[in-house]
Specification:
The termini are close together. The radius of gyration is 17 Å and the shape is globular. The protein has one domain: TolB, C-terminal domain (Neuraminidase). The protein is mostly beta strands.
């Protein structure tokens, strides 16, 4: 059966540099576990803001609405909280807020960029990447910003962490081996760091399916294009699921695993996977 796509929005741009470490976060889209909305960042006012919308693209609501760059938002698993990165205080720090944009709370405070936060499944912790120690590494902290702990420590760049649905593993991207970004997994305390992909190209922004049986990620095609792939948690059964003349990136499953929201240049597309 030919895959079906639903156009949701046309407010995104996507820019990935293959020449160096990627410090700028990508626009994001994610489904919460409870309230059925998508949270994302988009530039419709001259700077990135955090928005929510219904799964059909309707009801787009600006939650942040300030002149700074607010980006890379992720839902808590119960759909009541959103965590995101913002440079409103001079450099990128991590903030949380309620699902309606109220009760803004700054969680990190240092002179280096902290970005790409994601919640643990029980919402007690947040994992993120930071350049505070000289290069991008993965850190975790409690949901209130306390107990900030470095999980990786190497000369490469470790980026884009995501918790497994059962809360025992963290996926991330790293260029520690060859300069190409590959997908790794590790325990939540940083132990047992294991390489999952091994290619002479870039594999980026890995995330889990809701049942933990698949990993979705953005894989490099002939430059400058990217496509969305899936694979098993051990790296087998690598399958390309998009094939377009523009880049597709940063996919996120719906809570039931039936749809996959992804970024394309200027568009967000939902692909029906079943």
């Amino acid at each position: 059966m030919k895959p079906k796509f639903l156009l949701l929005s046309a407010i995104f741009t996507l820019a990935i540099s293959l020449a160096g470490v990627m410090l700028s976060p990508l626009a994001g889209a994610a489904f919460p576990g409870q309230n059925g909305k998508i949270v994302f960042h988009g530039d419709t006012t001259g700077n990135n803001e955090i928005y929510t919308m219904n799964a059909d693209g309707s009801g787009q609501t600006n939650l942040t609405n300030n002149p700074a760059d607010d980006s890379v938002a992720n839902w808590s698993s119960d759909g009541t909280k959103i965590v995101f990165s913002s440079n409103r205080d001079g450099n990128f720090e991590i903030y949380s807020m309620n699902a309606d944009g109220s009760l803004l709370n700054r969680l990190t405070n240092n002179t280096s960029a902290d970005q790409y936060p994601t919640w643990s499944p029980d919402n007690s912790k947040i994992v993120f990447h930071s350049i505070r120690d000289g290069n991008n590494e993965i850190y975790s902290m409690n949901a209130d910003g306390t107990n900030q702990t470095r999980l990786t420590n190497n000369a490469g760049a470790d980026l884009y962490p995501n918790w497994s649905p059962n809360g025992t593993k963290i996926l991330f991207s790293t260029n520690r081996d060859s300069g190409f970004y590959e997908t790794y997994s590790m325990n939540i305390d940083g132990t047992s760091q294991t390489r999952i992909t091994n290619n002479t190209s870039y594999d980026l922004i890995p995330d889990w399916s809701p049942d933990g049986t698949k990993i979705t990620f953005s894989g490099a095609l002939p430059p400058p294009n990217f496509a969305v792939f899936t694979m098993n948690p051990d790296g087998t059964a690598r399958t390309q699921i998009t094939n377009n003349t523009t880049s597709d990136s940063q996919s996120a499953y719906s809570p039931d695993g039936l749809t996959l929201s992804l970024l394309a240049i200027e568009t967000v597309i939902t692909r029906f996977t079943k």
